[in-house]
Amino acid sequence: MRTGTALPVLRASLCAAALLAGLPASAQPGDPASADADVRAALATRGDPARGLTAFEDCAPCHRKDASGRVNGSIPRLTGQHATVIVKQTVDIRSGRRLNAAMKAVIDEPPPLTVQAIADVAAWLQGLPVAAGNGRGPGTALERGKTLYERDCASCHGAGGEGEAATFRPMVAAQHYAYLLRELNLIRSGERGNSDPAMVKAIRPYADQDLLAVADYMSRLPAPKR
Ligand code: HEC
Ligand code: HEC
Questions:
Q1: Closest Cα to residue 40, out of 88, 96, 112?
Q2: Cβ atoms of residues 17 and 9 within 8 Å
């Protein structure tokens, strides 16, 4: 912690955040209030990328050591994703707000995942370059995909698929096609659980072919420059 110029009041609040950070994340299944508190606490905690690399050992069996995920779509790429998105989605999954039984079972194993560990992992992942070689779609409906994306999605996810950290909107560029397509189906049916209502409204009328087209388009957007 920087000491020289920090005002006492700032120092006090940083210490409070540090105290909070040592506590296990308190999310309970189906308790949105405690999930919101965990998101706020993790965002108020400065993440340490070096510790994040170590903490990620618990995640690597599924997400892979380099966090590149799987081209077959079973596991998303996490490299370069906004830290805010990593924090919110991890907490949402832990609280049951986003349904993911397999991951929840592992991260619920003792010792509990702390708020500090979530912040550390998020800081590490955000700093990594977007992994190359993501899975792409068949390339058969890219014009349609572009039209839909620019009409219905770019206002939130950005013209280049870069997302927006402050509003928890994920970077969708260069993500695995099969993962994007699976999530779009879960968003359309409401099964993902934590989706932005305005997005669900936009996607609900989509035909299967539209989901395919827009997922393919997003998978081919180049990794955003930083
Ligand atoms: C048992 C396997 C497994 C483990 C262990 C696991 N995950 Fe996951 N994770 C998944 C799966 C599967 C998904 C995608 C779920 C879906 O399709 O909705 C996912 C999704 C995510 C997402 C959402 C990404 C996005 O783009 O929305 C984040 C963030 C995440 N995991 C972080 C972590 C962290 C951090 C850890 C370790 C503390 C971890 N995961 C451990 C399987 C796992
Ligand atoms: C009103 C803003 C908004 C609009 C419009 C919107 N999204 Fe989203 N989207 C979000 C937010 C916020 C999330 C993060 C999920 C959450 O926690 O709600 C998300 C998540 C996603 C995800 C999951 C990404 C991941 O890493 O798991 C995909 C895929 C996606 N959006 C695609 C789309 C597509 C395709 C469209 C247009 C048809 C669209 N979105 C329109 C806000 C929006």
A1: 88
A2: no
From the CA of 221, the nearest ligand is 2
More confident residue, 23 or 216: 216
Q: How far apart are CA 142 and CA 147, in angstroms?
A: 9
Please give the distance, rounded to the nearest whole angstrom, from the Cα atom of residue 202 to the centre of ligand 2.
10
- From its phi and psi, is residue 6 left (phi > 0), alpha (psi between -120 and 50) or beta? beta
Residue having the nearest C-alpha atom to atom 11 of ligand 2: 169
Ligand 1 centre from 213 Cα, in Å? 25
pLDDT at residue 92, as a whole number: 94
For residue 200, how far is its CA from the centre of ligand 2 (angstroms)? 8
Tens digit of each residue's pLDDT (9 = 90 or more) over 141-174: 999 999 999 999 999 999 999 999 999 999 999 9
Q: Give the closest residue (by CA) to ligand 2 atom 6.
A: 199
